[in-house]
Amino acid sequence: MNFASIRKFSLPLGSLLLSSFLLWGNIAKANISISPMVVETEAKRGQAQGRITVSNPDSQNFRARVYTSPFTYDKETGFKILSESPKDLTPYLQFSPRELLVGASRKRNIRFIVRFPPSLPDGEYRTMIFTENLRKGTVTQTDSKNNITLQTSIIPRVGVALYVRKGDVSPNLIPDSAKFDLKTNQIQLLVSNKGKASAIVAGDWKLKQGKKTIQKGSISDTTVLAEKERYLNVKYLNKNQSKLAPGEYQLTGELGWGVNKKNRIPFDVKLTIPAK
């Protein structure tokens, strides 16, 4: 059988958190690592396959169940689990094992295969493959004002995003506009994806007033799903910078996606900083 090559992304934990990527629970309590965290592939002759590696660096055995769930990225709030989706990959996905035991300082693979029926419309299909620790963890929180300590049980889980594309589909990214969120003091760049494939987007930006550059920086990896739109956070404040004065600004820069971010698109949008 002729299977597609698979692009894998194994990102540092900091990038995963900043990008609203696929981390659930507390990774320290989950006490495992999974690679890759994102898998993108194209089906050839209606099929694709791959594997995910679960590593247990602990001195105790790790037991988990493996399951899938459709998902999306909301324009405003980020990652959301769905009960159903027309782009859910699960009906065409087989994987094993569905429950795994990873011995101390050992690794195990989760293998998957995708089979698309010929009648399925071309497009991108996606799902999260979750590895959920069967042993509950606890989080302790102290309310000093009321002098009470609360303990909450959690079930740590780590998710891998799996994207499989059928047919000749690709992203088509368009930076639309920018806004300023008064609640978070955050600049947000709205990007629409008119294509039928998702993209992990990053880039550089400059904030200008007239010909003067006020600030500049970078945009962390953020997923913009196929035929969706998403606000990208422009983190313009650090401890050495003051807040922006109300007024009219210009947000310019360039976004990149794909292998080594070779696909590039410039943006130049107006930004209004309102008075509180």
Structure characteristics:
276 residues, mainly beta, seven-stranded mixed β-sheet, four-stranded antiparallel β-sheet, 2 helices, 22 strands, disordered N terminus
Protein described:
By secondary structure, the chain is mainly beta. The protein is 4% helix and 59% strand. It has two helices and 22 strands. It has helices at residues 13-18, 27-30, and strands spanning 6-9, 23-24, 33-35, 38-42, 47-56, 62-69, 71-74, 78-81, 93-96, 99-102, 106-115, 123-133, 137-143, 148-154, 157-166, 173-181, 186-193, 199-209, 212-224, 229-234, 247-257, 263-273. The strands form six sheets. Strands 1, 2, 4, 6, 10, 12 and 15 form a seven-stranded mixed beta sheet that branches. Strands 3-5-11-9 form a four-stranded antiparallel beta sheet, with no helix packed on it. A four-stranded antiparallel beta sheet has the order 19-18-21-22. Residues 1-6 and 8-30 have low confidence and may be disordered.
Brief synopsis:
Helix content is 4%, strand content 59%.
Helices, strands, pairings?
Blueprint: E1 6-9, H1 13-18, E2 23-24, H2 27-30, E3 33-35, E4 38-42, E5 47-56, E6 62-69, E7 71-74, E8 78-81, E9 93-96, E10 99-102, E11 106-115, E12 123-133, E13 137-143, E14 148-154, E15 157-166, E16 173-181, E17 186-193, E18 199-209, E19 212-224, E20 229-234, E21 247-257, E22 263-273
Parallel strand pairs: 4-15
Antiparallel strand pairs: 1-4, 2-15, 3-5, 5-11, 6-10, 6-12, 7-8, 9-11, 12-15, 13-14, 16-17, 17-20, 18-19, 18-21, 21-22
